[in-house]
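Lab manual, section 2.4: Encoding a predicted structure.

Procedure: take the sequence of the chain (157 residues), apply the prediction step described in section 2.3, and record the output as structure tokens. A sample record is shown.
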Amino acid sequence: MAVPRRQFGLGFTLIEVMVVVALIGIALSQALPAIASAYANARARAVVTKFVQDFAWLRNTAAVNATTAVVLVVNADCSWTSTLNGTTDAAHSTITAALAKLAPGMGCSLSSAVTFNFTSQGFVDNSATIGFSSAGGQSWPLLILNSGSVTNTTGAS
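Recorded output:
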């Protein structure tokens, strides 16, 4: 009487598992820098979008409420402060500490603060180019026109 043979091959050998784990590790080590850069760019893009939205809100506020003094100060560290009749509007401002939390390593092309005074038509008293850049290498040069419009001049969107 013959003894039945046991069937093996229902699993993987230790060497096969180790090779697969090593390959996954190599793939992850190549992908992690790109993922970190994309994450930093996305966080900085959110800050730039907030800036453009706050600027538009201030412009509209100045046009609708002609008696309200509307001022925006953009600092050299990319933070900004909105004031209505001399009172800071925290909802449409981003302070340095919040900026560091929202987009760590974000940079700005300004060497000193720039002040924008809005007229009752929503215009601003001066024009400027403000360059925001992320820790991931992406940049957003924004041109602020006297008409109160903000445009992304070149680079990433």
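Check your result against the sample. The domain at 14-152 is CATH 3.55.40 (minor pseudopilin epsh fold).
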